[in-house]
């Protein structure tokens, strides 16, 4: 009977506990917003976050996706899984001087799984995973914001209470629909930020679980503290920012669990007050937990440092010009200006760009520059918020402002240039996590306005309007990320001074065959950045193809003068010099390219062509053989070897090379065609016929294939089949050299045979 009575009273005890918790200051008292059960709140957040980015699901691989996914050998099955732990995000060895040291093996592992499950590079699966990740993170935000805004309270059954359901829903919606997140969700390489954020939040929620009182009555669980450290390590293996969660867990512990007044603590430390225990520093195991977090963080960083190597990442001035400024004043002013731009993107995410480097944001070099106002405004706001967070008599206000500032600033520190140089000026992806702090501050500001406002519904409608505008902006920006053409063109109005934007638009046009338009954008890129060697190289290539050889030579010569180790420009310069019949200079350029890039199969191929033009046949064959050793699937090099050996009468050697090539590239119809020609000359008619027919099946519209098969039949004595294929060849190409003459010979022979038969 006593047992039954206890069970009957348990729900009442839980309700009483909830009422006691709600007696504390609470944002929801002032917020005029929707109140939904937790399950429905999460469903709404998931649905809206999905609607924002759903139209990106069938987008292409764009921008950095090419290097991180398509050209990344770590995604392919033949690459050992163990290599992922020694390579950077782009598939380069971490020990390489050219590595950016971005160590994200778990992110690359998910790309590899996508690739293997899809059976190739099909972007839909990659995009769908990104959208699901963002929806999952947005749903988790409901729980995270309920803790950050409402505090951490558990019922007598150990169930966490949501003391700010309205505020947490609003903050989660703000996070879910923020347009600045588009790069992370619609750009596949943004998965690094998404995975990092997922384990970042799980680490935080795991740390909160440590304070649920267990059956033994312990005030905290060491197990869950250690779990949070492990999850923080996993977050860092997805992206470097993940390590910052350990610092935020310590801040949360001090402010929410131990309710430390930072200003009071600072005063007592300064005056060496012996009553520090009363502040809460040593109570409830805080010092022990912070020691665990610090030891875990230090161990993670040490292991990361050992794997990465001691050398810093290699960046150039165009990546981050402020970090290369000689003056400390110029560096400090510009770094702070970059911070203000990041803050502005959170406040007004209307002008978004895939890349903010290369002149997009000119350096501030003097205090007379009007942009100084932006960083002054940033620090005015930050100092105001910090003063309120430290000095306010309202403990609830102090806690929320400090947590908001903590989540805004601490995850941003790795991208701040304070500890090491980063390879960008502004990057929208790096404010995915700091936007948590922005959402906390926005929601708190809304609660203050609601408290003062007489017409709270108008204020709520205004916030709904902001959310709706953000949803539409997300949808629009997602559609721009669907293809490179739309993405690059969208940046022209945002960053018209960015040489890389013009370069990428030009490259996209060139890839589509619109060379005239591409030249215009490449020229503009070079005008904006006269040292932009990649734009010079690409422009030189197009001019070379248009036979504007002298201007192409000038551009490529300037490119290698600016960057002497630019192997691709040296090779292209060699091609131009070869076309200008300056063979010695061309040979020197090719060897210079190979000196700077030892494994350069295309350069060996072009060197072989040069030697063939000079009738240096042995040198040509050696160069092409080097190309095929470095790149066994180099079809052009194999083909040239077969043709050269054929033309010089080395039919047996040509046949051996042809068979070797087809073993490596069995479906290459051009190799089938070349080997078929050799076999025909060796009177191996049956095998030659089979290869010709196979080549024609793969490429039925090649006039030369039909013409040479006709010649084979002509030699073989199959005159009717020869006549048939001569006619097909002439139909495909009436001007095919030699075919018409051979056809006329065959017709005369057939006429003679008919006369004899008659």
Automatic annotation (TrEMBL):
It is a multi-pass membrane protein. It comes from the Eukaryota. Pathway: Protein modification; protein glycosylation. SUPFAM superfamilies: TPR-like. Keywords: Endoplasmic reticulum, Membrane, Repeat, TPR repeat, Transferase, Transmembrane, Transmembrane helix. SMART domains: TPR (SM00028). GO terms for biological process: endoplasmic reticulum unfolded protein response. Its main location: endoplasmic reticulum. Belongs to the TMTC family. This is dolichyl-phosphate-mannose--protein mannosyltransferase. It comes from Sitta europaea (Eurasian nuthatch). The lineage of its organism: Eukaryota, Metazoa, Chordata, Craniata, Vertebrata.
């Amino acid at each position: 009977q006593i047992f039954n009575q206890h069970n009957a009273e348990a729900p009442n005890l839980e309700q009483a506990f909830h009422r006691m918790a709600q007696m504390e200051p609470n944002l929801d008292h002032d917020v005029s917003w929707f109140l939904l059960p937790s399950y429905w709140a999460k469903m709404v957040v998931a649905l809206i976050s999905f609607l924002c980015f759903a139209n990106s699901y069938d987008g292409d691989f764009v921008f950095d996706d090419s290097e991180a996914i398509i050209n990344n050998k770590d995604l392919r099955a033949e690459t050992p899984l163990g290599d992922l732990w020694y390579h950077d995000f782009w598939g380069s060895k971490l020990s390489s001087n050219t590595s950016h040291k971005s160590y994200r093996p778990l992110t690359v592992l998910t790309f590899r799984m996508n690739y293997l499950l899809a059976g190739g590079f099909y972007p839909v699966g990659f995009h769908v995973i990104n959208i699901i990740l963002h929806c999952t993170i947005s749903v988790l935000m409901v729980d995270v914001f309920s803790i950050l805004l409402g505090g951490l309270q558990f019922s007598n059954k150990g169930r966490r209470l949501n003391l700010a359901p309205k505020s947490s829903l609003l903050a989660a919606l703000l996070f879910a629909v923020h347009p600045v997140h588009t790069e992370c969700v619609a750009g596949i390489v943004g998965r690094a930020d998404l995975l990092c954020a997922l384990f970042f939040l799980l680490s935080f929620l795991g740390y909160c679980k440590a304070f649920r009182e267990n059956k033994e009555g312990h005030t905290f669980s060491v197990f869950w503290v250690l779990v949070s450290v492990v999850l923080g390590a996993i977050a860092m293996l997805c992206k470097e920012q993940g390590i910052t969660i350990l610092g935020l867990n310590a801040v949360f512990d001090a402010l929410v669990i131990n309710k430390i007044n930072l200003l009071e603590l600072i005063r007592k430390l300064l005056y060496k007050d012996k009553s520090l225990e009363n502040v809460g520093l040593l109570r409830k195991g805080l010092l022990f937990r912070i020691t665990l977090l610090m030891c875990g963080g230090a161990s993670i960083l040490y292991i990361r440092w050992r794997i990465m190597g001691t050398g810093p990442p290699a960046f150039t001035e165009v990546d981050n010009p402020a970090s290369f400024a000689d003056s400390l004043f110029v560096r400090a002013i510009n770094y702070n200006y970059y911070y203000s731009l990041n803050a502005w993107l959170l406040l007004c995410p209307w002008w978004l760009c895939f890349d903010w480097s290369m002149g997009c944001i000119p350096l501030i070099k003097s205090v007379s520059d009007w942009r100084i106002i932006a960083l002054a405004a940033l620090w005015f706001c930050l100092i105001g918020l910090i003063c309120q967070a430290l000095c306010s008599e309202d403990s609830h206000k102090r806690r929320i402002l400090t947590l908001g500032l903590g989540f805004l600033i601490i995850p941003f520190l790795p991208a701040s240039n304070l500890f090491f140089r980063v390879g960008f000026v502004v990057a929208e992806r790096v404010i995915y996590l700091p936007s948590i702090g922005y959402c906390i501050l926005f929601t708190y500001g809304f609660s203050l306005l609601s408290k003062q406002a007489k017409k709270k519904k108008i204020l709520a409608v205004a916030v709904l309007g902001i959310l709706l505008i953000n949803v539409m902006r997300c949808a629009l920006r997602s559609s721009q990320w669907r293809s490179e053409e739309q993405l690059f063109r969208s940046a022209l109005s945002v960053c018209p001074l960015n040489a890389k934007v013009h370069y990428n638009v030009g490259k996209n046009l060139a890839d589509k065959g619109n060379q005239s338009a591409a030249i215009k954008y490449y020229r503009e890129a070079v005008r904006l950045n006269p040292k932009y060697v990649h734009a010079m190289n690409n422009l030189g290539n197009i001019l070379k193809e248009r036979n504007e050889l002298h201007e192409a030579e000038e551009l490529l010569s300037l490119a290698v003068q600016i960057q002497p180790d630019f192997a691709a420009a040296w090779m292209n310069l060699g091609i131009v010099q070869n076309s200008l019949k300056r063979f010695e200079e061309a040979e020197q350029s090719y060897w210079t390219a190979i000196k700077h890039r030892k494994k350069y199969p295309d350069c060996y191929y072009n060197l072989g062509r040069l030697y063939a033009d000079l009738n240096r046949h042995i040198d040509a064959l050696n160069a092409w053989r080097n190309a095929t050793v470095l790149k066994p699937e180099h079809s052009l090099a194999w083909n040239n070897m077969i043709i050269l050996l054929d033309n010089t009468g080395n039919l047996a050697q040509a046949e051996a090379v042809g068979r070797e090539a087809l073993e490596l590239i069995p479906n290459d119809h051009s190799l089938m065609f070349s080997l078929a020609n050799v076999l025909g000359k060796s009177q191996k008619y049956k095998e030659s016929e089979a290869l010709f027919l196979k080549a024609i099946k793969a490429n039925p519209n090649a006039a030369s294939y039909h013409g040479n098969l006709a010649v084979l039949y002509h030699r073989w004595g199959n005159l009717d089949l020869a006549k048939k294929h001569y006619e097909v060849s002439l139909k495909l190409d009436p001007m095919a050299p030699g075919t018409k003459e051979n056809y006329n010979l065959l017709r005369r022979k057939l006429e003679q045979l008919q006369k004899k038969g008659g």
